[in-house]
Structure formats: C-alpha cells, structure tokens
Amino acid sequence: MTINSPQLHPASTAARPLRLAILLAGICFVPANLPASPASDADALLAKMTLDEKIGQMVQVDSGALKDKADVQKYFLGSVLSGGNSDPADNRPETWLKLVEDFKAQALQTRLKIPLLYGIDAVHGHNNILGAVIFPHHVGLGAMHNPALVEKAERVTAEEVAGTGINWAFAPCIAVSRDIRWGRSYESFGPSTAEVAKNGAAGVKGFQGSHLGKNSVLACAKHFAGDGGTENGKDEGDTVCDEATFRKLYLAPYAAAIKAGAGSIMVSFSSWNGQKMHGNKYLLTDVLKGEMGFQGFLVSDWAAIDQLGPDYQSDIQTSINAGLDMVMIPAGPGEGHNYAEFIADLKALVAAGKVPEARINDATRRILTVKYQMGLFDRPATDPVLTQSIGSDAHRQVARECVRESLVLLKNSGHVLPLKKNLKHIAVVGQAAADLGIQCGGWTIDWQGKTGAVTTGGTTLLAAVKLAAGADTEVTFSADGRDLKGADVIIVAVGEQPYAEMKGDRQDLSLPAADAQLIAGAKSAGVPVVTVLYSGRPLVLGAALDQSDAFLAAWLPGTEGEGLADVLFGKSAPRGKLPRLWPADHGQLSVDHLTGQPLFPAGFGLTY
Ligand code: GLC
After folding, report:
1. How confident is the model at residue 327 (pLDDT cuts 50, 70, 90)?
2. Domains and their CATH numbers in the chain
3. Which end of the chain is flanked by fewer CB atoms within 10 Å, N or C?
4. Is the CB of 306 under 6 A from ligand 1?
5. What backbone phi and psi angles, to 5 degrees, belong to 18?
6. Is 227 in the pocket of ligand 1 (CB under 6 A)?
C-alpha cells in the first residue's frame, strides 16, 4: 500500500452493499442474518469475560516498564505504549516491528485472544524511529492553512507507524494554545479554535481514513481539554475561565474530532478552575460522552491519575468513576504505582462497590468496540510494503511540501529573496544551519529531542543550500559567523534548542543573545542578511528584524530541509501565514491578555 493507494483506508466493509441494496430497494423487511456490528461483537465478547480480563483491557503499560513481556498475557493487558524515551536499542524499523509483534503475540495467547492496541507519540511523523520522515511540528502545519495537506501528512505518518506494526498514534494534538510561554505551543495548530478544529479533524482522517477500518491507525485527539489555556502558559497548569468560554475555546475542536470519527481521546494533565481534568466527571462523562456523543474511549496521560490524590486507590476510584476508560501506567513492579498494583486496587474497589461493575463494562465495551471497528481481531501481519515505505522518497516529498507551505516570510527588503542563481558566494552562518536536531525540535528520536548529529536521516539547511545553489556558487559555513569576507549574501540560521512539555515553559521569549549577536555580526559585513528562525513559537526579536534584510519564520520544519531551499531560491514562493500574532515585546505573549501592539498580526505573511 502506498500513500496514494486507496487500500490504506478501504472505503467499506462487506456489509455496506447489502445495507445499501435494502435501502435502495425500499424493502421494509430486515433480513434475520444482518452481519454483526462492532458494538454487538463487543457485547458478545464482554459477556464471556472475567473481571480480571475486563480490567486488563483498561490497562496500558509502557514497553520500558514491561521487563517480562509475558505480563501482557498474565494480566490480560489491553494496550502497550512506547513513551518518548522507550526505544529499542538500535531504533531501526525492523527492530521496532519485532518488539511490537512480540507484545502483540503475548496478547493473542490469552484465553480470549483479544488483540493489543500498541500506542506511540507520532506527533510530527513517526518521530521515535530511526530514518522516519519527520514533518514540521503543528505550529508550522498551522501556518499552512491547508487541512487537506495536514490530512496527507498524517496519512504518510500512519503508513510509517503501521510499517512498524503499531496501530495507535497519540495524535493529533488539538490544543488551542493561547499563551506562547507554554512549552507545548509548537504541538498546537495555534490559538484559533476554528483553525485547530479544521486541522484536527483533518489529522484524524489522515490517521484513520473516512472511518475506523482494517487499515486505520487509531487517532487520539489530545489533551482534553483546555491544555493550551492555562494561566501564564504553565504546562499541566490551571485553565481559569467560565464555562461558556471553556466550551467556545476548548471543546469545539473535540466536536470536530468526534465528527471526523476519532476513536480515542487523551485526557489532559491540566485543570479547569482548579479541578484536575482526570477527575472531572461532568466534562468527561456528562459533556464529552453524553452531550457531545463521543463513542470511543478515553485514555489517561502518563501516570496522570497519580496527581489526583490523596492516595492511589482514590486516584483510581475518582478517575474511573469520572469516565476514564484506559489508564496509562508507565511503571512496572517495584517502580511506584505500577500496573499490578492498579489492577489489584481496581478489583478491590469493584468488590467494595466503590467502582460499579457497570462502569468497568462500559469502559471495556468502548475499548473492544474500537478494536472491532479497526478489524484488529482478524488483521493480517504487517505488510512489508509499509515497513519499506518508512523514509521513502515519496513520503519525503510530502514532508518537503509541508515545509514549503509552512514558511512565513516576515521581511524581504530590496527583494533579497529569492536568491539569484548567479551568486558567487553564499555564506551560511550559525550552528542551527547544520543541526538536524534544532531543525526538528522536541519529540524527535528522544522525548526532548537533541542537538548535534541526530541519529536519523534528513537534510539540513546547509546541505539543502549546497544542493540548490548554482554550480558556480561557493557555499561556505561557519557556526560562529567569522570569516564572511567575499560573501554576496549571508544566510544566518538561529533558533530555540529542542525541548518538550514542561521543559519548554519559558517566561522570557527573547531571541537568544548568541543568536542576536550572530545576526548583528552578519549585518556588519555589509552584504544582504537572510535570517532563518527555527522556533516552536514566535520570539521577541529585538533588533534582529531590523538587522535582517529578509526574515523567514521556519518554525520546526523537520528532516526535509530542501523545502527551505525551495523557497530561498524561488523554486516555490512562500505562502505561509502566521497562525498567531507575532509579539513586538513581552506584552503580547498571551492572546487573552494583550498590552501594546504586536509586531505582525495573525494572518501576516509576504510572498514573492
Ligand atoms: C506525555 C504527554 C502526552 C503523550 C504521553 C505518552 O506526558 O503529555 O502528550 O502522549 O505522555 O508519551
């Protein structure tokens, strides 16, 4: 199956023509042997299950915590995940495939052979895996204003995820990021609820197809809800607002994701008006499952129930009774609140009548229904064509297109861009120009990402400029910006060091001083300066914009640096538009608490 193959998400199952025939014929009788539905299959299976088997389905354990894979079978586990740092030693696709298939095999050795859901954070491509195509983070995809391209990007990601046997992606993040001090701003499509809703729904369809089916990768809209609206942008903080505002800003994208068929939703670590989302029965059950009609299942975030208190049993009682269906437990025996403890505690709570068995049945039924909808019970082994598609040129071309479409040109004095083909000497300056890790940002190979020789394949800006420049053009590189003599133009690459989650929370969003000095130094060389900024959010630029003749916001573009060169050399014109305002100073970091005027409004972007 390749990216354009319709097989990736087959349009229908065998039952559909029969139902259509009945409809068209207007026949009023209903044949007795209508094929079973995923829901009826789930009910039939549920009726056979013991309490241990039901509770096992509600448990998701990190692969790093499963020292003994046989615990999947022993505890009837419903799901395994690989968190941001739970990679097999050599991180190659084939090694991942074997790891995942081994865990799946354990689940199929249980009495009822209920297949495993295996989840991973494929948040900008299959980003944990060596050689996978890394896409621009959502902040860049949000600048494209092109949901169809977002869907195409997630379909490529789904192929690469499926190529390692994995069937669940903890994506798309549909946070509405209101304050760029939040370390996860780059995982959000931006502060506009409408834009997030459109792109989020497109992402769900990219992973799952028109509906959950045999070739879907289960999407996971996250993090429900208000994760991007916390006070001062504090990660896992408190979103303080009235209900009408909360609904308008933060619930609308979930309505779109549900309409698009999202089979799972991840609950947020954050709180609303002081109440932790993981314990909020009104929002999880009454609103999301009741009023909004969410039929899939709710999964917790990483050991998030542990934050509820006062003790682990009450954590479990509060969260499960609030409507949580599956609990992500990253700890194994001897590592704090672990999966064996969880199972024992939940069984005791059911025995004591503190958690109704009806709640266990509802959670299990939801999980089983999704597994039936995905055809997991009779899904064949991973198609090697999908494994071979990881890092393929066809996939890289889609990511390169996303890079081109995401770039926002903020300044182009004297039409410095596009660069002329007959330039004699282009000087490329700044470590970021030669550092794939900075170009990709967090959630790349490692949870936090890393600078330096990132152990994955890709094209840096420097390499891309060398490929695109004319045969007679000399391209030189200096990380520290010395020796710029003779350059016709200087390209300065600057930006944030990689980070993820709370590690990226920052009150001071000034351009790093070393970067500012690099741009100032280039300016003093007396030739045109083109600045390329890698960042997970707009930064306060100070003098850097004035000192640049052209300024390109590149966000966190991922492995396909040739998309940058396509725009720099005019193969494509820049079309990106700011998904959010660009602050002139620290008075405009939160769109809800603005003082002063921004440097650029949302929607700004120059072209050629
Ligand atoms: C993390 C993140 C969440 C991710 C999960 C599993 O803490 O909050 O986005 O899906 O844990 O890695």
Report:
1. very high
2. 10-388 (3.20.20.300), 407-588 (3.40.50.1700)
3. C
4. no
5. -65, -45
6. no
Report percent pLDDT > 70 for the chain: 94
| Bridge partners, residue 550, by sequence | 412, 530
Q: Is 561's C-beta closer than 6 angstroms to any atom of ligand 1?
A: no
The SS3 assignment for 90 reads coil
**Residue nearest ligand 1's atom 8 by CA:** 301
| The two three-digit tokens of residue 8, written as one number | 């990736």
Classify residue 517 by burial, with Cβ atoms within 10 Å: 0-12, 13-18, 19+. Answer: middle
DSSP 423-449: -SEEEEESGGGG-HHHHH-SSBSBTT-
| Alpha carbon distance 376, 374 (integer Å) | 5
| Residue 110 CA, ligand 1 centroid: distance in Å | 28
* 483 CB neighbour count, 10 Å cutoff: 12
Measure the CA–CA gap between 258 and 294, rounded to whole angstroms. 6
The pLDDT confidence band at residue 483, using thresholds 50, 70 and 90, is: confident
Q: How far apart are CA 174 and CA 167, in angstroms?
A: 20
Query: pLDDT, tens digit, for every residue of 95-126?
Result: 999 999 999 999 999 999 999 999 999 999 99
The two three-digit tokens of residue 69, written as one number: 């894979």
Would you name the residues annotated as active-site residues?
301
- Tell me: the pLDDT tens digits for 10-42? 334 444 555 555 555 444 455 556 678 999 999
> Does the beta carbon of 604 sit less than 6 angstroms from any atom of ligand 1?
no
pTM for this one?
0.94
Query: How does strand 489-495 pair with strand 529-534?
Result: parallel
Ligand 1 pocket residue status of 330, Cβ below 6 Å: no
Atom 1, ligand 1: residue with shortest CA distance: 302
- Closest atom of ligand 1 to 269 CA is 8
Average pLDDT on 592-608 reads 98
Q: Which of ligand 1's atoms lies nearest the C-alpha of 302?
A: 11
pLDDT for 13 equals 43
